Amino acid sequence: MTPVPRVDIAIDAQGVARRFGARWVLRGVDLQVRPGEMVGLLGANGSGKSTLLRILATLLKPSAGGATVYGHDVVKSPDDVRRHIGFLAHSPGLYDDLTARENLQFGAAMLGLDHPDLDAALERVGLAHVTHERVRGFSAGMQRRLSLARLVLANARVLLLDEPYSNLDVAGIALMNELIGESVAGGGAALVVLHELAPAAGLLDRTITIRDGRIADDDAAFLEPDALAAAGER
Amino acid sequence: MAWRDDWRRVRAIVWKDLTTEGRSKAGFNSVAALGVTILVLFGFALGPDAQALRDAAAGALWLAVLFAGVLAFNRSYQVELESGALEPLLLYPGARWTIFAGKLIANTIFVGLMLVIVVLVGIVLFQVRVPDAWPTLILVLALGAIGLVSLGTFYAAMASRSRAREVLLPLLLFPMLVPVLLAAMSASKALLSGDLMHEAPAWIRMLVAYDVIFVVAPLLAFEHVIEV
Amino acid sequence: MTAPSDLSNDLPRPGYWRWFGIFAFLFLIAAQATGLITSIPDRDMGHLQKIMYVHVPSAWIMSLTFVAVLYYSFLYLWKQRENDDLKAASAAEVGAAFCGLTLVLGMIWGRPAWGVWWAWDARLTSTLVLFLITIGYLALRAFVEDPHRRAQWSAAVGILGAINVPIVYMSVRWWRTLHQIQSNPSTVDPWYVFNLRTNAFAFLFIMIYFIRQRYVAARYERAAELAVQAAALRRN
């Protein structure tokens, strides 16, 4: 059943279900993220939150149901969806034998950017001092920052982030929040899979908890950080 | 504009593949060395009689390139798989066939260079007399290499991501390459011995037809095998 | 994409196929018997010639299975129905069996006819290459666990393999004719063509029946797989 696209909604998932073999990881998730919102996705390991994110990012196809990003269907027009989103995965997905700048250069060329300001992006994420060093020698935190730089270049309207705060120090967390905040303030949206709430507490508009492939609760009200953390651990 | 973007993507992938391969420690040198080693082993198997070696030179050469090339094909996806870079690659907007085209060009350059080295060594080891028609021979080498590389790159997209990748790639690839190997070997052999029967043009036509079919078909099919 | 329940609910029923199977086997027996009885011993080959009534139809049917693989592979990529993937795989397995049969019979014919078990005859060599291509297809399926990925990859490999079939035949034939004149079985038997045709049809019916049976088995396998996984899930 194709959902009716509503272009004023950034992310619109209706009845999204996904099966791996006979195992249903997602069992019908309805979710909307409006422009200007940052929504946190919580849940235990294996609850399906990463799978949901990957479906929205067009990396997986839903077994049932559908989703749109700014009106573009993730199954029918995945390429249009990809133009609007920036996805951050667990693993940084960088080329070890290329330098930081070369990694960005490759990303910019693949994104179709005509005159990308690679140095500014590296400066922004605090990696200017390793511009010409190969990624092989980078720490996990530095690699995370470099993938952030790639995200900066992409300048996506919708951010789909899978545990973006892992491996980041305090400065890195602040940087991530800065970037998310900028995107959201500019009319974009962010859906963020979170392991713990503390780093994002100041920015989150609401959280959604996934349990056993379904939405457990959708709390639109802004909760206190402690209550949010407690909700995430349930 | 779409063409320009597609072409830019292809160029980016060619550059990225060649650069990462060039900077990796193992890389080109070991594959080329392997090609030469295989050639030497063929020398032991078929020689030491000079005429026997000359007769077998074309066949031995192509097999050496094939066996060493198989390593290159899997390696071309290794980079993405090891560092988890396949997902970001698939997330860039744009047609999937550009990924295949980029890898195809990069692998052709890679295998082409290896081919040159193996041919030069082979001429010496197998006491081959360079024929007058050597430009045609170069054409045969190029067409044959493209045929090998195209299907090799395509099947490696699958084999490199499955269990038993080392056996699956040759198992899928080698039987499919029989026509191009027959054509390349026969044409090479004929040209090396003066092509008295004028076989080479027919084989070259077959090589061209094979290359066209088996570059276009994998290009079209690539998007179905490269999903995560 | 398919909803949760429908894969295990509509397993194929035998229905008319049981009768078709009986008919196919009876027809095969009749065609083979007719061939054996009516054909006169060949001038050169003697009774050996009669192996052609199995060898030649076997080869024709083998080529037909490649067409089936091509068709169902395309269909799968277009419609994304799992059943089409299972049909393509069944056709490939049956094709491998007929390939093997063709090869063995060719060798059995060749031993007395040529004096050797193998002489790189163009058609036999092509059959061997196609046999290996089919093995590659089946090996791919064996090594890929995820059903969707297995189906996608098999379809691509199946299509490429199928379009290579005429190219393999052509290249091997050129390779042979340029070096040696191949010996073709020739005969003066007036019943030869008739018997060949009837046996061809007999094998065609058998092929269809085999593919159907293999497909049914594949559907049951798949349903069992899903049931086991579902049961494991409930236990958790």
Largest sheet entry of chain B: none
- Give the overall pLDDT of chain B as a whole number: 92
The first-level CATH class of the domain at 11-93 and 157-233 in chain A is given as Alpha Beta
Q: Structural class per helix/strand content of chain B?
A: mainly alpha
Q: Could you tell me the mean pLDDT of chain A?
A: 85
Name the overall outline of chain A. Answer: globular
| Total of helices of chain B | 9
**Strand percent estimate of chain B:** under 5%
Describe the biggest sheet of chain A?
A: 6 strands, mixed
Low-pLDDT stretches of chain B are none
Number of alpha- plus pi-helical segments of chain A: 7
Low-confidence stretches of chain A: 219-234
**Overall CATH architecture of the domain at 11-93 and 157-233 in chain A:** 3-Layer(aba) Sandwich
Instruction: Spell out the CATH superfamily of the domain at 11-93 and 157-233 in chain A.
Output: P-loop containing nucleotide triphosphate hydrolases
Oligomer state equals heterotrimer
The tally of domains of chain B stands at 1
How helical, in percent, are the residues of chain B? over 70%
Question: Would you write up a description of this structure?
Answer:
Chain A has 234 residues and is of the alpha/beta class. Chain A has a domain at 11-93 and 157-233: P-loop containing nucleotide triphosphate hydrolases (Rossmann fold, 3-Layer(aba) Sandwich). Helix content of chain A is 32%, strand content 26%. In chain A, strands 6-7-8-3-9-10 form a six-stranded mixed sheet, with helices on both faces. In chain A, strands 2-1-4-5 form a four-stranded antiparallel sheet, covered by helices on one side. In chain A, helix 4 (118-124) crosses helix 5 (140-154). Chain A is globular. Residues 219-234 of chain A have low confidence and may be disordered. By secondary structure, chain B is mostly helical. Chain B has one domain (2-225). Chain B is globular, with a radius of gyration of 18 Å. The mean pLDDT of chain B is 92. Chain C is mainly α and 236 residues long. Helices cover 78% and strands 0% of the residues of chain C. Chain C is globular, with a radius of gyration of 21 Å. Chain C starts with 5 loop residues before the first helix and ends with a helix. Classes of the chains: A alpha/beta (234), B mainly alpha (228), C mainly alpha (236). At the B-C interface, helix 6, helix 7, helix 8 and helix 9 of B face helix 5 and helix 6 of C.
